[in-house]
Write a structure and sequence with these properties.
With 336 residues, this protein is α/β, with parallel strands linked by helices. It has two domains: 62 residues, Phospho-2-dehydro-3-deoxyheptonate aldolase, domain 1 (Alpha-Beta Plaits, 2-Layer Sandwich), CATH 3.30.70.1140; 250 residues, Aldolase class I (TIM Barrel, Alpha-Beta Barrel). Helices cover 32% and strands 18% of the residues. The chain is built from ten helices and 14 strands. The strands form three sheets. It has an eight-stranded parallel β-barrel, surrounded by five helices. It has a four-stranded antiparallel sheet with strand order 2-3-1-4. Strand 5 and strand 6 form a beta hairpin. Helix 3 packs across helix 4, helix 3 packs parallel to helix 10 and helix 5 crosses helix 6. The radius of gyration is 21 Å and the shape is elongated. InterPro entries: Aldolase_TIM, Class-I_DAHP_synthase, DAHP1/KDSA, DAHP_snth_FXD, DAHP_syn_2. It is an enzyme of class 2 (transferase). Pfam families: DAHP_snth_FXD (PF18152), DAHP_synth_1 (PF00793). Keywords: Transferase.
Length: 336
């Protein structure tokens, strides 16, 4: 349920209303925009008397929300959320960021070299896989805790905040100095992990599951936000369809659709979506034009020798070319 307050509501009446609603076991989420202040009531609102609340002097309108997601719902929070990674690096609300780096951390030389190259090209955050979920148990699984140490070394050298994927709750102590924790597509509905991430004060990059609907993605984000962590970034990374020409099918319509459904930032991963390096540039340009708040692009200094996903990785030179192209498109991107 949403309660829209009138301008400059009487504080005593507002406090009484909040106390009464909380006595009914409801949580209250306040959102102050440029034109209105909204109270989002979270919990079982079936017994709340809408007419009674609507009759109060401080209340403008009252509406029931049909969607099962509340915290992530744009109706509860009309203004775009801006997720602050550092003082200088923000995502959402007009802040566009590119996250770039290798699919997998392989060596200190590789991870630090790529970090320098993507920063020079304009990337704002550095990504690298320390823990790698693989379909085959015989495939390279990542360098794990040693990989995180190498990412932190790259962070020290480049000054860029780092993004890497968590696989299990037990690994979280290793992520203390990681700036953004990524939840991969396979873990999007790992609800116990999502609950735990809701208890920490760190940005979470949540990827859409391989066969998940947008509502299911938002419900997973709701798990994190319901735990108290509001610093969530959504990532469209392609979904599984009958088409086999590409690794996945990039659902670009998800970007403007999610913008109407939620206030959270939305970025796009064209590398995993297509699985083909030659398609990364046009899909990155299209995602930018569609209004994405950022991109996640895989970059490797020697893609042909990469231990993981070399076919979809760009060379540093190709990445720099993509950056120049998207910068030309950004002024004309869809704003909603």
């Amino acid at each position: 349920m949403i309660v829209v307050l009138k301008d400059n509501p009487d504080q005593k009446q507002l406090d009484n209303l909040v106390s009464w609603l909380k006595s009914m076991g409801l949580d209250i989420h306040f959102s102050k925009g440029e034109t209105a202040t909204i109270m989002g009531l979270i919990g079982d609102t079936s017994t709340v008397d809408i007419d009674l609340i609507n009759s109060l002097d401080i209340v403008d309108t009252v509406k029931r929300v049909q969607e099962p997601y509340k915290n992530v719902n744009r109706k509860f929070h009309p203004e775009d959320t801006v997720v602050e990674i550092t003082d200088d690096v923000k995502i959402g609300g007009g802040n566009f960021q590119v996250i770039a780096g290798p699919c997998s951390v392989e060596s200190e030389e590789q991870v630090c070299l790529v970090a320098r190259e993507v920063k020079k090209a304009g990337a704002g955050l550095y990504r690298g896989g320390a823990f790698k979920p693989r379909t085959s148990p015989y495939a390279f699984q990542g360098m794990r805790d040693e990989g995180i140490k190498l990412l932190l070394e790259a962070k020290e050298q480049s000054g860029m905040p780092i993004v890497t994927e968590v696989m299990d709750i037990s690994h979280l102590p290793l992520f203390e100095n990681v700036d953004v924790i990524q939840v991969g597509a396979r873990n999007m509905q790992n609800f116990e992990l999502l609950k735990e991430l809701g208890r920490i004060d760190k940005p979470i990059l949540l990827k859409r599951g391989l066969s998940s609907t947008l509502q299911e993605l938002l419900m997973s984000a709701e798990y994190i936000m319901a735990g108290g962590n509001e610093r969530v970034i959504l990532c469209e990374r392609g979904i599984r369809t009958f088409e086999t020409a590409t690794r996945n099918t990039l659902d670009l319509s998800a970007v403007p659709l999610l913008k109407t459904m939620t206030h959270l930032p939305v970025i796009v991963d064209p590398s995993h979506a297509t699985g083909i390096s030659g398609l990364v540039k046009p899909m990155a340009m299209a995602a930018t034009a569609a209004g994405a708040d950022g991109l996640m692009i895989e970059v490797h200094n020697d893609p042909s020798s990469a231990l993981c996903d070399g076919a979809q990785s760009l060379t540093p030179e190709a990445f720099a070319d993509v950056m120049r192209s998207i910068e030309q498109i950004r002024p004309y991107a869809y704003r909603g």
